[in-house]
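Look over this today:
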Amino acid sequence: MTALLDGIRGNRFAVFGRAGMDMFAAPIGTKSEHAESFQSDLGGSSANICAGICKLGGYSALVTSVSDDAVGRFCVNRLDHYGVNTQYIRSVGGEFRTSLAIYESRIEDFQNVIYRNGAADFQVTNADVDAVNYSDFSAVVSAGTVFAAEPSREATFRAFENARAAGLPVIFDIDYRPYSWPSPEVAADVLSRAGEESDLIVGNDEEFGFMAGGIEKGLDKARELASKPGRIVIYKMGEAGAITFVDGEEIRTGIYPVKAVKPNGAGDSFMAGLLVSIADGFDLKQAVLRGSACASIVVSQPGCAPAMPTNPQLTDFLAKHSGPTEA
């Protein structure tokens, strides 16, 4: 575990996965089909994690592919805006397209329409991940969506090998999105392999349950993965908080209740807050709580990347909001 935490404390993350364009209906509460205007910004789980890390004072680089068009360039420009290193992003031509998400700032009857046909981020290759200078980083991070198709699946497993060779810990956000996968069986097998090759695994109860073959088996799956010496597993349970498995201990933490305006983006913000908080010297329990606070901040505001907090915003939130709840 020391090597894992030391890598996170280095606060320099190479992140593998997708960037996308988000469009969310305005104003708050508006249904997409009734909207007269939409706001746009950066989206995509790995890109959101990158933006969140940078806004909290860490360093991140995104390794991905985007389409060689206006939407792909929009994403790169927004990553630059948030301070993310974009040198490892390759533009791809042809019919490949950067992902587009159209959603709403509302909880009741929430709709999120994802356009992922011919996804450009699945075109990441072995050459792309081999081009990364791993010595510039202290840890690597991957979201599970990158494993849903080839060639990015095997390329990201190769990136895990490269990270190991460079002495870097591997951090894995399960991030299961059914629409990206050819079948649940393939997804369960591949995501389980990624978990076995990782040092820190973060997911929710449904994701661990999916890997185990049933939501009722998810907690046991998390415990099983955590049995490997030096590994940390964080099992998130929504409003019930989280359980962190480390060195045979189970640390239970609550959440910071807020009035949510949307459900998405919480997991990405949690990951960014967790990692940078560890890097900033907080113990693991406090880092998990700060990650939970970041998640609460994001769901209480429109958008994903623009809602990620800065350190002053996180400090202000913690000072003004009740919580955490009892775990």
In short: The mean pLDDT is 97. The radius of gyration is 18 Å.
